[in-house]
Amino acid sequence: MHAIQLTGVKKFYREADSIVRAVDGIDLTLAPSEFASLAGTSGSGKTTLLNLIGGLDRPDEGTLTIDNLSTGDKSDDELAELRLHRIGFVFQAYNLIPVLTVYENVQFVLQAQRVPEREHKNRIMPILDELGLAAMAKRFPTQLSGGQQQRVAVARAIVGNPAIVLADEPTANLDSETAASLLAMMKRLNQERGITFLFSSHDPAVIAIADRVIRIRDGKVQSDDRKQV
After folding, report:
1. Looking at residue 227, what is its pLDDT?
2. Residue 13: enclosing H or E segment and its boundaries?
């Protein structure tokens, strides 16, 4: 079984009079429950690769399988359903809805999944409590620190019970102490819930916590290293 499998995946963009090979023939497989990092400098192809894995974009060549489902023959609506039920996203810019409270931002996923409302509180509050956010459930994003907002983003990402969480530079806007706390929390969720985490970063301190480091350069995998247990 594979959580994520890419075979010969390519993504090109036209820029002025040239073609940018953002992802250039990547083969990659992640097993369920892995905790892996995409490492590379800005422009290496990390974000494009995450967008392809998450179904936010389609490859120009190659095949993609997410949670054992092939994405190549999926319509846009089917890809949206796949994202909704199987993939959680944590974005660098948080992407919280400013007019909704912490509780309502997390609840938004359950509403989209059409989970009966009577189940919402029992699903949301344990997660907020686990992430140290229960006392902030009625606050709005503008009333939270950056670290707190990113924890809300993590809560929103996992409340729908996804198999996979993709995080694009999740600590980029955080100080080192808050970043370390967030990553430790993500690692705990990986271990306790069995969620596959794939996050991108160019920060050595962030990369160091990963069990597997996949280094990307110019849209290609340069190395793929696992920690020795």
Report:
1. 81
2. strand 4-15
